Amino acid sequence: MQRILLAEDDAALGQGIRLALQGPAIEITVCRTLAQARAAAAENRHDLLILDVNLPDGSGLELLEEIRRTSDVPVILLTANDLETDVVTGLESGADDYITKPFSLAILRARVNAQLRRGAHGPRTPVELDGFRFDFERMDFRKAGQSVELSKTEQKLLRLLVENRGQTLSRATLIDRIWTDGAEYVDENALSVTVKRLRDKLEDTPSNPRYLKTVYGVGYTWAVK
Question: Which of 11, 74, 76, 86 could be disulfide-bonded to 97 (CB atoms 3.0-4.6 Å)?
Answer without folding.
Answer: 76
